[in-house]
UniProtKB/TrEMBL annotation:
Organism annotation: Amycolatopsis carbonis
Signal peptide: none
Pfam families referenced in this protein's UniProt entry, alphabetically: Phosphodiest
InterPro entries for the chain: Alkaline_phosphatase_core_sf (IPR017850), Phosphodiest/P_Trfase (IPR002591)
Protein name, UniProt field: Alkaline phosphatase family protein
A GO molecular-function descriptor: hydrolase activity
SUPFAM superfamilies for this protein: Alkaline phosphatase-like
Residue spans crossing the bilayer: none
Length: 373
């Protein structure tokens, strides 16, 4: 099997440490060389892949002009991992958000966006306090300790979610409701000495529902480009804007339902991940048989590795002992337009046209667009 290796491109997790270094925060360094700044904002556009931006450059002329190079987001290429990379400056093997869903030993499979049991929907905020799942210091805590106004400008509906607490502790939360106040609040924060993280989710939503590159997706991309233009036009002197994304997206038109494939269920006690990136948790003593079955059935449609080989290949970056058990005994990353669905257990996810999570360039590469006031 031709196993993909993580490239030498800068990782999404390196962006905020580089921004904090540009702001003069002590102890922060970065392989990304950024000019000194008085204030800075990292704006994350959920679902904006590097390839998608290149293919639809006419719909986003401002972003296209500013985006001179790509980043890689690491594995899995999904929102929980990307948001945690912003919040910690680390890859998933250290911050521990190793999937849209993943097993936390002793508590079952956690849906990291909803903070509920992926098996029965139970609220897990009591059993799994957010800062126990992600206990590392956040980039916002570092910014605040250095005397910066550390702020998150994002949808008001996310203001007190468990994922927000896990990844954005130390920031004040400025809840917004639409693109207009997202731009306005971001510029308000940048007017003082500050570090700001801003987030827009709807491009990803429309990519899931209608497909990346669909008419609806392209119309939303035009609005995103206007958002970026509005912030760039209003940047105060000495302010830095870095626009990034958490993953790209592909249209999945080759689906295999795991629930209808008995050979892929044998010896499996739980599933994590998502349609394009699966954690497969085996019954005791069954990992080797599960691996053989998955490699045989999926063939060239997915890269299928045992946990240790996926770690050795660098998929998750450096992996801590705390995080290692969250990774499946077997890890499957989809190739092409393939998806591993669960029609009954994950009906909504199965129905989506656009998907992400895997190691393809379409999912891994995202833009780094920079502007200065």
């Amino acid at each position: 099997m031709d196993v993909p290796q993580i490239t030498d491109l800068p990782h999404l997790g390196q962006v905020v440490p580089a921004v904090l270094a540009a702001l003069g925060v002590p102890g922060e360094t970065g392989s990304l060389a950024l000019p000194e700044a008085r204030s800075a904002c990292v704006l994350l556009i959920d679902g904006l892949g590097w390839q998608l931006l290149a293919e639809h450059a006419a719909d986003a002329p401002v972003l296209t002009e500013l985006a001179k190079s790509p980043l890689r987001v690491g594995f899995p290429s999904t929102t929980a991992a990307g948001v945690a990379a912003i919040g910690t400056g680390l890859a998933s093997g250290e911050h521990g958000m190793v999937g849209y869903t993943f097993e936390v030993p002793g508590a079952g499979v956690l849906n990291a966006l909803r903070w509920r049991s992926h098996e029965d929907g139970r609220d897990l905020r009591g059993a799994l306090p957010p800062r126990s799942v992600q206990p590392l210091p956040t980039t916002f805590e570092a910014a605040a300790a250095a005397g910066l106004d550390a702020a998150v400008v994002s949808s008001a509906q996310f203001s007190d979610t468990a994922l927000t607490r896990a990844t954005q502790s130390g920031a004040r939360y400025a809840g917004v409701h639409a693109l207009g106040d997202l731009a306005a609040r971001t510029l308000e924060v940048l007017a003082s000495r500050s570090f700001c993280y801003a987030y827009h989710s709807e491009l990803d939503l429309l990519g899931h529902l209608y497909g990346p590159g669909s008419t609806a997706w392209r119309m939303q991309l035009r609005h995103v480009d206007r958002l970026v233009e509005s912030i760039v036009d209003g940047l105060p002197a000495g302010a830095l804007l870095a626009v990034v994304a958490d993953h790209g997206m592909v249209t999945v038109d080759d689906k295999l339902d795991l629930e209808d494939t008995p050979s892929l269920l044998a010896g499996v006690r739980a599933f994590g991940g998502e349609v394009r990136a699966r954690h497969v948790y085996a019954e005791p003593g069954a990992a080797a048989d599960v691996l053989a079955a998955w490699q045989s059935v999926l063939g060239s449609r997915a890269w299928v590795l045992p946990r240790d080989e996926a770690i050795a290949a660098g998929w998750f970056g450096t992996v801590s002992d705390r995080v290692r058990p969250r990774i499946g005994d077997v890890v499957a990353a989809a190739q092409g337009t393939f998806g591993m669905v669960r029609g009954l257990a994950e009906a909504v996810e199965t129905s989506l046209i656009g998907q992400h999570g895997s190691l393809t360039e379409a999912e891994q590469l995202v833009p780094l667009a920079l502007a200065h006031g």
